[in-house]
Each structure stands twice: as structure tokens, then as C-alpha cells.
Amino acid sequence: MTKSATAFAPATVANVAVGFDILGFALKGLGETATVERIKQPTVVVMPVAGHADIPVDPLKNTASAGLVRLREDKKLPFGFKVILQKEIPVGSGLGGSAASAVAAIVAANVLLAKKLSRAELLEYALVGEAAASGARHGDNVGPCLEGGLVFVRSHPQVELVKIKTPPSLRCVIALPKLSVKTREARGILQPHVPLKTAVQQTANLTGFLLGLANKDMELIGRSLNDEMIEPQRAGLIPCLPHLKEAAYQAGALGCSISGSGPAVFALVDGEATAKRVLKLWKVTAEVHDFTLVKAWVSPLSCPGASVRKK
User: Fold this and answer.
1) For residue 38, what pLDDT is reported?
2) How much is the pLDDT for 186?
3) N or C: which end of the chain has fewer CB within 10 A?
4) Residue 57 DSSP one-character state
5) Which residues are catalytic?
6) Chain segment 127-176, per-residue pLDDT in tens
């Protein structure tokens, strides 16, 4: 039986402006790698992550291991796991780092099991890890990280994933400012209730966005990609957001908003040429307004989900 396996899980953009906790897509060029080893001791051991002394090694508090603890309990496994995590996604970036860690670990651990987990089980155990980080079982990062592409997450009465086709020319431009926003804190500032008018407008925007994707109607996508509900509450956490949005629209973006809980910002554009214009203008904007971009890049929306790394 295999004693060790390594898996890669991609970074993600969650919420996608109009789909709070229900939409997300995988990104190219950034992700987390987890190596999971079988050990004789009936426990889960987390190795310290190089350069991240703040990441807990307590298996119940670490996003990569919390799902493995539950897996051992549910399946009554006679062996344990050792988890070695290589982090590429900055902590508190809004790019789904906790979800990617959880997904990478459970996908790697699945290789070590005599009876493989179903897709639904992989999702369930990854959600346990996500909840350890954010305090909520939201699947808008975990879903696309596991499945790839743009994913709709239906959470009631049980979590269900539906992949959404996107126009081939659609691109995402990502900018990561030199800031850190903790998911728990970003969720904590949200009001539990929204005005009826706001709810209606957000529903219209979500519907318009999905219909725009289905019909390859870029103008409808652009008119609809506007967050009326969450972005106004979180904008204060990202001082450079107005400058990045203004530059994105000036360069021809369809829409621009916060990735997950931030501070990463994403813009959707039609075509590679427009993506390059947004990227170039964002870098100029950062210089003009004196803020730092840690990373900025372009990704398609059809990226693959988590996968096992071959030795």
C-alpha cells in the first residue's frame, strides 16, 4: 500500500462579486502543496510550516489536518497521518489559502486509503478544514479548488457543487496588495440583515451574470458584475480598492471587485489584450498612489482543480 502522496490545490476567487458564499473559480499560477504520509501511530501529526510560525500545528486547528482527524474518526482507521505543507498562497490574502490547504491534504490522503473516498466525501472533509480557519462551512473556495473552473455551491440542505461553463475568451486579472485581511474578521463585520431593495438588486445582478455567461453576452456580464451587498461593507479594509477599480474600468474590464474577503482584487475581462492592459495600468496605479502589489497576474477561468503530483 502507498505510504506517501503529494497533491496540489489551486488558489481561488470566491464570491465573484455577486455570489457571496455560492460562487467561486480556480486560478492558474498559485496554490498549496501537501504531502501526507501514513504513520503507525493512530493520530494526525502536522509538521511546522517553514516561514509560518503563526500556522498552528494542533491538528484540530490546522486547516490541512482538521479534515484528516475527522476522516480517521469516521473510518476508524488503524493508522495515522503526517502532514507536510508547502504554502505559496499568502495568509490572509483572500485567495483561498485555507481551502487549498484542506483540499490538498485530503486529496493526498485519499491516495493512502484502501477504499477511496467519493467526491462528496472529499468535499465534506475539506469543508471541515475550511471551517477550522474561517469558522464557517462555506464551499465557495473549497468547491472550485476541488473541481476546477467556475462552480456554484448550494449549501442547503447539503453541500452540492455545479460547474458553470464560461466563455473561452473570459480572463481574470488578479492583484494582491501588501495587506492582510483575516477571514474571520472580514465575516465578523458583515451585517446579518440587508435591506430588501439591496437583496433584490443583488439577486438581479447574480441572475444577469449567470445568464451573461450562458449566452456569452459580455455586455450583460459587465452590467451585472456589481456587488451591492458585501463589497460596500468590506471596502474600508482595502484602501487601494477604489484606485484599482477605477484603473480596471479605464482599461476596459467588465467588472472588478474583492476576491473572497480580500485584500486581493480581481477583474474579469474579455480577451488577453484587455487583461494585459488592466495588468499594466494596475502596476502604474500602484506607483502613482503609493501602494504595493505583492503579486499581479492573469488567469483563465477554466483552470483544473486539485490533483495528485506524480513522483
Assistant:
1) 96
2) 86
3) C
4) -
5) 130, 183
6) 999 888 777 778 899 999 999 999 999 877 778 899 999 999 999 999 99
Label each residue of 226-258 as H, E or C: CCCCCHHHHHHHCCCHHHHHHHHHHCCCCEEEE
Within a 10 A sphere around the Cβ of 1, how many other Cβ atoms? 8
C-alpha cell at 182: 483575516
C-alpha cell at position 154: 448550494
Do both 146 and 174 map to the same domain?
no
From edge to edge, which strands make up the β-sheet containing 293-300?
Answer: 255-258, 265-270, 170-177, 293-300
- Co-location of 34 and 157 in the same domain: yes
| pTM reported for the whole predicted model | 0.94
C-alpha closest to that of 214 among 163, 257, 249, 252: 163
| Averaged pLDDT score across all residues of the chain | 94
| Of 90, 27, 53, nearest in space to 294 by CA | 90
Q: Residue 17's domain spans which residues?
A: 4-164+304-309
Looking at residue 43, its pLDDT comes to 96
182 shares its domain with 259: yes
Specify the number of domains making up the chain.
2
- Rounded Cα–Cα distance for residues 150 and 165 (Å): 7
Backbone angles phi and psi of 121, in degrees to 5: -70, -40
pLDDT at 259 (0 to 100): 97
Residues of the chain with pLDDT under 50: none
202-233 confidence digits (pLDDT tens): 999 999 999 999 999 999 999 999 999 999 99
For residues 252 and 272, membership in a common domain is answered with yes
Q: Are 50 and 102 found together in one domain?
A: yes
Q: Based on the fold, state whether residues 86 and 200 are members of the same structural domain.
A: no
Which residues in the chain belong to E strands, given as ranges? 4-14, 23-39, 44-46, 80-86, 150-154, 160-164, 170-177, 255-258, 265-270, 293-300, 307-309
93 and 227 housed in the same domain: no
